[in-house]
Amino acid sequence: MNINDYRKAMDHINPDKELKERIMNIKTFQKRYVPVHRILVSTLAAVLMLTCAASVALAASPELRTAVLSFFRMEEREQVPGQSDVDQSDISQPDVDQPDISQPDVDQSDISRPEISQTEIGSLVSAQYIKMDQSYGLSGGLLNNLTWSDDGRTLLEADFWEIRDNDLVPVQVDMQTSQIDITFQDIHYQGELYWFIRNGELYFFQGSPYGVDTRPEDQWYAGSIPGHNDVLLLKLAQGRQADYSEYPMLFHLDTGETEDFLAGTGADQLENAYDYSWSEDMRRALILCGMGADGLQEWLCDLDAGTLIRLEELTGLTGEVSASFAGSDTLILTTHTTSKEEGTWQTITCYACDIPTGQMTKTLDETHYYRWWDEPYGAQLFGGRCILVGEDGQVRLIDLKTGLQTVVEGFTWQTGDRFMPSPSGNKLLYYSSDSKAEGLGIVQLGVVDLEKGTFIAFDREGYGNLYEEGIGWSNDSTVSINARSSDGGTRYLILYTF
Known about the structure:
By secondary structure, the protein is mainly beta. It has four helices and 35 strands. It has helices spanning 3-11, 17-24, 43-54, 311-315, and strands at 58-59, 66-73, 78-79, 115-121, 125-132, 137-139, 142-148, 155-164, 167-171, 176-184, 187-198, 201-206, 220-223, 231-238, 245-252, 258-259, 273-278, 284-290, 296-302, 307-310, 321-325, 330-338, 345-354, 360-368, 378-382, 385-389, 395-399, 405-409, 417-421, 427-433, 442-449, 454-461, 467-475, 478-484, 491-497. The strands form seven sheets. Strands 2, 3, 25, 26, 27, 28, 29, 30, 31 and 32 form a ten-stranded mixed sheet that branches. It has a five-stranded mixed sheet with strand order 1-24-23-22-21. Strands 4-5-35-34-33 form a five-stranded antiparallel sheet, with no helix packed on it. The longest helix is centred in the first third of the chain and has 12 residues, at 43-54. It is globular and about 55 Å long.
């Protein structure tokens, strides 16, 4: 299977709600968190909210402002380890937010130590190649091997190693255990959460008793809150498929107490609510609800005002509208036209909505939507940002909040090019795939630094020696690639620091 076969297959998959939930467990990144405090909700606040919704004003589109960002392609090429160096097998994509916790039960004495080598690419990027005979997790910059009980609920053993130069050094972490024990809507959720703090950051693990052995009380999931290491989001789930829903609470690690911080807003009364996205300060939430054959319904919850309002009532926009936060007080709203033949998006229009006033500013107008399999040009959305690819391959980065357009000079978009935002959203991972290669076949790799206004990339040679299965951000400065060899004997984790 090559990269195009994989993408076509994924485009036609409609995952069940359990899979959607696991996808939604991926960390939602904000810059800071304001602790939740219970407040008295005044009638005046609610009235102001509804008045704002009823009197939405549409501002004129902003004047076109353009900046320039230059593309720098390094002359030095990366030499990917060859087939003679590795014998690889399957490896799952590392995830700093939900580390690979489904490790096999193995005798630690029988594990061979991973081999590590490193190099510099163009004096701007450092690469580490970790060769191993089994899959290791990655959390807090540490490799880990976790051993779980047969039922997947209890952590029996945890080993951690720090990468120092070309060696792995064992590290002792202060692993803590918290008991989850809460009843919500007649379901008693139970289990154990394992966590530690390293360099001021919180890292946590939970078992994976998923599948036929999953019980209702097992369906709780933990999520990080950026900027806090004393509290996390506890997501309580129930049902499956069309009946799936979840509800978030705060879990305080120091006391073990659970806080219903949406109490009084009416959010707990929404049916089939399954997706929550948060503003930077965690004082507002967008809540997505499944409506069966009638599609989806989205609500805006304001914790300070204690209000809950449908998105269409707030914005005055009709038809299907999708939304995301850009800061604490701004929503990016997207409407679209749909192809009658394929049922896919054809054009999109974006607005920046100031929540306190309800004023909306159009920042993208009826722009062709990017479809890689059909016409490789148009707009690609990444939350509050957009990558606009022209028919000539010219690339522009658009801030959908301000309308600022940044032209990428010296770079031409090619078939197989992809971008991926970093956890904080201040960088974009760039990679280009060889459509004829097995696996991802990454021929070029780079990073756009949106704050510094730089875009550097390098070519890769020997990528065909490995079957590259996954690529992503480990943190805001490190990109990881997971790979294996065709004979399935060895696994490789490649870390790039930009």
